[in-house]
Specification:
CATH superfamily of the domain at 1-136: Ribokinase
CATH topology of the domain at 1-136: UDP-N-acetylmuramoyl-L-alanine:D-glutamate ligase
Oligomer: single chain
Mean pLDDT: 92
Order of helices and strands: EEEHEHEEEHEHEHEHHEEEHHHE
Number of helices: 10
Distance between the termini: 33 Å
Structural class: alpha/beta
Helix content: 25-40%
Number of strands: 14
């Protein structure tokens, strides 16, 4: 079982419109609502790939209840921990060209006793997982070292952790020794103060991360590991919604960790799945036809 932890759960609302122009009234053609947050998106992709996955994290209020109901309807198992605050809502406006504009609420304020209860429950669930994926922002009230605490709990139990975070949460989380850190170039610079990708990756590895995978949009993925540096990218730039591409990378990397796939194949798989996610209309989805095509053509090369 792969466990995904989403501490800043969301209800994702997507508006599909013909055109979107700031300052003007826009008529919405189609609306979709479903549970979101980076860890939930990772879980959706893993579920679609046929993996046993469990969703946990914090959920509260009307949006939390709606998100939980949608997870059940989608066939995803959850062990979400209820809080008093209202889980956030995110809004994405997608026009007919596939261009996406996002609006992200900050999320609830989590009380200290709620966080301690969540830490205990997430640690218990991690003990029976094969891999733990920790993704996304931290809501107010959750300590900056929350991911460090959760990574430590998983690794102490012999369970590898994949961390996808930003800023101080990433910097502190890396010190707990996650098996993989997945980060984009901007997040890497913010967490390490290094604006050159290789220097930033080295800094995270010195801090404790065993392997660092850096995403750079259509330019692909670069992996910094004990075995060296690898790069993989789709052969052509695909149009669409890039919102969930990074979460597809995390899903592929987690699946590769479970299967013990060597890093060249694992990185190529992540690049293919990421590109297929761009071709899908919503985060947490991927185009299966694009995925099948790219997984036979994308290769990782040493750099």
């Amino acid at each position: 079982m792969i466990l995904t932890i989403t501490l800043n759960m969301a209800l994702d609302v997507t508006y599909h419109v013909e055109t979107f122009e700031h300052g003007h009234t826009t008529r919405v053609g189609k609306v979709s609502r479903r549970a979101g947050g980076k860890g939930v998106n990772v879980a959706r992709v893993l579920h679609e790939l046929g993996h046993d996955v469990l969703v946990t994290g914090l959920a509260g209020g009307f949006t939390g209840r709606a998100a939980r109901a949608e997870l059940r309807a989608a066939g995803l198992r959850d062990e979400l921990i209820e809080i008093d605050g209202q889980s956030r809502l995110t809004l994405v406006v997608v026009d007919r060209e596939g261009s996406a504009t996002g609006f992200w609420e900050p999320g609830p304020v989590v009380a200290a006793p709620e966080w301690q209860a969540a830490l205990r429950r997430c640690s218990e669930l991690a003990a029976s997982a094969s891999v733990v994926v920790l993704s996304g922002s931290l809501p107010a009230g959750v300590p900056a070292d929350a991911y460090a605490q959760l990574v430590a709990a998983a690794t102490e139990g012999g369970v590898p952790a994949l961390l996808d975070a930003d800023g101080e949460a990433l910097a502190l989380g890396a010190t707990a020794g996650p098996a993989v850190v997945k980060v984009n170039a901007s997040e890497l610079a913010s967490a390490t103060g290094e604006h050159e990708v290789q220097a930033g990756a080295r800094a995270l590895r010195r801090a404790g991360a065993r392997t660092v995978v850096v995403t750079d949009g259509a330019a692909g993925l670069t992996c910094f590991a004990d075995q060296g540096v690898l790069h993989a990218a789709a052969p052509e730039v695909l149009g669409g919604n890039p919102t969930g591409a990074g979460d597809a990378v995390s899903a592929a990397l987690a699946a590769g960790m479970v299967a013990g796939v060597p890093w060249p194949e694992r990185l190529a798989e992540a690049a293919a799945l990421s590109a297929a996610a761009v071709s899908a209309p919503q985060a947490g989805s991927f185009d299966p036809d694009v995925y099948r095509q790219l997984r036979t053509t994308v290769q990782a090369v040493a750099v």
